[in-house]
Amino acid sequence: MPDRFLVSVNEDISEPEWFFKVEPFLQKAASILKYDGEEISVLFCNNQFIRELNKQYRGIDSATDVLSFESGDSYVDEDGNEWLNAGDIVISLDMIGENARYFGNDENDELKRLLVHGLLHLNGMDHGEEHIENGKQPVCEMLVLQEKILESLSGEKIIG
After folding, report:
1. What does the alpha-carbon distance between residue 46 and residue 69 come to, in Å, rounded to a whole number?
2. Would you place residue 137 in the very low, low, confident or very high pLDDT band (cuts 50, 70, 90)?
3. Sign of dihedral through CA atoms 50, 54, 55, 57?
């Protein structure tokens, strides 16, 4: 059964022109990860909104690029299909360009990185204190897997 992605933008920002390409990309990434019957919401927002979430849930009073809120609840829909509500991914549109400049890549690659990163967190993976750093290969299982998935999806375009 394919996964279900509910993609939206925070009410105070406009929907990006590439918005409709996010769900097909997520379907491909979830397929590589062999996810089945998961429901995930993705919210795009600005730095102000994600800063408030970061402060409220992590005690960190600054904007960040991506937050994941794992749920793990399941439910049966009206057709009798069982879904795992994996949780929510929140991505700051403001940080995509900033991160792309830091990593020396384009915004398309950065958006894909944030989406895959969120998917992995919602399925119980964590990277501890390690983060992707410019010019440095990751060591932990989650970040190594993230980079492997991104490599297999390198031809996919969301932005551009």
Report:
1. 17
2. confident
3. positive
Indicate if the alpha-carbon torsion angle 145, 149, 152, 158 is positive or negative. Answer: negative
Of 125, 129, 63, 73, residue with least CA distance to 97:
63
Helix (H, G, I), strand (E, B) or coil at 137: coil
* Strand pairing class (38-45; 66-76): unpaired
61 touches 24 (CB < 8 A): no
In 3D, which of 108, 116, 120 has the Cα closest to residue 150?
A: 116
Please state which of the ranges 5-9, 73-77, 85-89 shows the lowest mean pLDDT. 73-77
Q: How many CB atoms neighbour CB 110 within 10 A?
A: 22
